[in-house]
Amino acid sequence: MGNMTNAYETLAVVLICCIAVLIVACLIRSVLGPRVTDRIVAVNSIGTMTIVIIAILSVLLEEAYLLDVCLIYAMISFVAVIVLTKIYTGVYREEEKEESQKEEK
Amino acid sequence: MENFRLILLIFLVLCALFVSFSKNLLVSVVIFMSYSLIMSIIWVLLESPDLAITEAAVGAGVTSVLFFITLKRIGAIGKEHPDEQDETTKEINSRPAVKQFGKFYKGAAVTLGAAIIFALLLMVSNLPAFGDADNPYNNEVSERYLEKSIEETGAVNAVTGMILDYRAFDTFGESCVLFIAAACVLILLRDDKTDTTAKAIQDEKFEPVSDTILQTSAKILFPAILMFGIYILVNGHLSPGGGFSGGAIMGAGLILHVNAFGYKKTQRFFNEKTYKRVTVCALSFYCIAKSYSFFTGANHLESHIPLGNAGDIISSGLILPLNICVGLVVACTMYAFYTLFKKGGM
Amino acid sequence: MEMFRFMIAAIFMFCGVFCMASAVFGMFRFRYVLNRMHTAATADTFGLLLTMIGLIIWKGFGFEALKMIIIVGFFWVSGPVSSHLIARMEVSTNKKLEEECEVKKYGEL
Questions:
Q1: Class of B1-81 per CATH?
Q2: ipTM score assigned to the predicted complex
């Protein structure tokens, strides 16, 4: 049985290292991304990977209440996206309308 | 595990560099959203789940939202306009003295930055090792908190016992700071002269209508978020979490409700009157309850509030009601910030 | 028996991480946001689900497993909504949309 625990630990550490590398790749995507939406998509997938990492850590460290953190991310991480898309689209449309009014004059 | 920590630290350094070097403020804020995600992983690794929950609730739900609204208010969102310098600025910038000062300024800034980095690195190399048992913070104070907190406060979660019993006065000050911050925002941003609902309608004319997809999912998620916030709030003395994180989650739920259904539907159950009543009642209850416990504690009188069984949901004396008070103040304040920044009124 | 269980859990979790890796690869490979969003959704749905199934097999069915199922459920409610909003923002703020993704009129099909 002790052998098995070691195997599980090694598996978990390898997996979270892989996901951490993927997170760094996502950061590079979010810096490179030419449009704002590119960056939001990249940051969103960083959020998903964070949920997975914390879930694996909660099983690895045997502390079940860490899953609460994942639940918080799963529930409210999209509030920021809602607010951003609303505001950005609103500002864009307003500017577009102002420009078309200027052209009419 | 060591490699994992190293990758996360590299991520944090890279993220900080990219945030500070990007020219567009909106891009900075979007990249900065990922910083708080990784910080919560690091709190988990350092085995401080209370901080991880608070970081998750505040970082995911509230800070970036407030950043976005602030950017809208200062006009930093939108198409990128090229920097237009008027004639006088150009003329001043082309003077030889100004040019020389610019060179001196850059050189001095680099020298000063390098000196500070060097001093800090020197400092870090002299710090005691991480997690060493002989470190100065492992003194009798933390020993007492860890050994006696269940017996003296009745809270299973030692952190909550610490912040709401041993150091409850500090927490009272923090709640008051939140209230004062909300009051300052109210003074600065409230718009009495114009009709705020009309202004909000005018403002939202350009924003996309919230469609069926958003509304349906909000219908599913809003009760769940509120319930989960209350769970974190009420379980504060048993599991990680507590007033601040639970309140932040509930505030994020209210922000979601406003965005999905509009101000009119939210004003049915949460308007300025509710905000004032809830905040003042919670703060004064906190003040009275804590004064009682300080009075009895300082005069060696017997406190008549039973501590109950450690581990039960109704236990640990005053901690549960105090947690609820802090959570209500935080939830109301977060929502008030959002509406005041957005349209200048509640 | 223990060995068998470990193997199944490991296979599920590696599949999940493979889904995430392919999502990140796609985000670098594709040239436009809507395509990138399409690949990123792989990580959001299957990456999360398969890793959680692996963790449930590791830990056995209990209170934790229930919480993990709730996490997947809530994420599957909230994730697509944010994708939908991002896509709507992209479509309504991009002037050169037709150059990027070959929008065809209904009559042309």
A1: mainly alpha
A2: 0.91
